Amino acid sequence: MFHGSIVAIVTPFKKGKVDEKAFGELIDFHLRSGTHGIVPCGTTGESATLSHEEHKRVVELAVKMAGGRIPVIAGTGSNSTEEAIAFTRHAKAAGAAGALLITPYYNKPTQEGLYQHYKAVAKGVDLPLVLYNIPGRTGVNMLPATVARLMEFDNIIGIKEGTGSLQQISDLVQLCGERLVILSGDDFTALPTMAVGGKGVISVTANIAPADMAQMIEAAERGDYGRAKKLHDQLYPLHQVMFVETNPIPVKAALALMGKCADEVRLPLWRMSDENFKKLKAALKRYGLLKKM
């Protein structure tokens, strides 16, 4: 159902408020560039510091602005199961094609707790659900055996796998087969994930280089790994600089340099250090992204 280069889109701010005009322009940028899907209100979208009203508004805007041309997979995860269900119900009502649900963070559930959490969401909302496993952010690793148990629920259709472990991804392929859509959770492992059975990536780098990310995944999909590897190597310096500080600090700074939105993140995030900003600007210049300013 979901595949390709799916952007984990930023939430642009202007003077502390969601910049709806810039958000619409970013979505148009992705539609023109061949991006295969949009995830609003994920980690890159600073969901943790959006109010409930802002969260719902951003999802509604993404659905409206995408206009059915590419799928919108709304970030609806929470460390409260009831809140996750409520956000997922809203995403369905707003017209999202699916929902992305991060594993509950901070409270560190057991594997049984994770199973029961996702079971409750799956039974509570009839919408395609993509699990999101990123232990570095949440403090808990959802094991492949737990994911396999969740395959009994037809609307759990995929996973964004952010461990960076090809062994864990391969275990998912072995246990779940074609039943599970596996999407890489980080840009560095997008191509290797495709090679072992993945269907794409939910990408940070796609915010600034959407066409090249889309073309890399498309090349891998058609089995042209020579072309895909060339694009992977070309994009790699951007992947590196996108994570020189906590995401989404660098990607928002990059978009500001490209004239796409303001360089504004919400506390407790803060603007880039001068040293890292110089590295970012140099990488964007080498890639040619600042020529369009």
Quickly list its features:
TIM Barrel; alpha/beta; 293 residues; eight-stranded parallel sheet; two-stranded antiparallel sheet; single chain; 12 helices; 13% strand
What does this structure look like?
One of its GO terms (cellular component) is cytosol. Belongs to the DapA family. The active site is at residues 132, 160. The protein is of the alpha/beta class and 293 residues long. Helix content is 47%, strand content 13%. The protein has one domain: Aldolase class I (TIM Barrel, Alpha-Beta Barrel). It has helices spanning 20-33, 52-66, 81-94, 111-124, 135-138, 144-149, 166-176, 190-195, 210-221, 225-242, 249-257, 274-287; strands spanning 4-8, 13-14, 17-18, 37-39, 73-75, 98-102, 129-133, 156-161, 181-184, 200-203. The strands form 2 sheets. Strands 4-1-10-9-8-7-6-5 form an 8-stranded parallel sheet. Helix 7 (166-176) links the parallel strand 8 (156-161) and strand 9. Helix 2 packs parallel to helix 3. The longest helix has 18 residues, at 225-242. The chain is globular.
